[in-house]
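Repro:
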Amino acid sequence: MGERNLGVYRIRNAGPSDAEIVRQISADAYIAAYVPVLGYIPLPAEEDYGSRIARHEVWMIEQDGKAVGVAVLEEFTDHLVVHSIAVNPGEQRRGFGKALLDFADQRAIEIGVPETRLFTNSRMQRNIAIYSRHGYAHIGVRPHPNRPGKWLLIWCARFGQRAPSIAAQSHSNAYQSFGGPRGA
């Protein structure tokens, strides 16, 4: 449990019975915020989370027993990928997203990896500001795996030293070494 200005909350693995609420929170969060910006529905809004829940990749943040947000975290041998953070629109700007990013950092440390990575669309400016404030650094770009002609920004946070400078890696090296999720 955590204490913040948002009160007492709990983060737990989602179970099979949570699949619909995970899907609903993701759809509500991504569609409301990003269809007007992107012109299309981001993939996390339409994903079937059943297989991710079965692999224990989906985490829910609850306040007073009510799910208010979800994080999808993919664990690799040398890093953790934050595939998705979604907070119910009525609960946004209260600290739940930050709590989920903090949790991702803690989870990476728990599993013994030195960094977290994430990918975002360059037009998701609100998210980019959040990631920057959280200590992530933009380290490259990669082609969008599901939207030809579109690009995703690669962000990284390293523990101890936080994130590498963009000058430290070329974009092509960053793309080759930063495999990850299907993207938003």
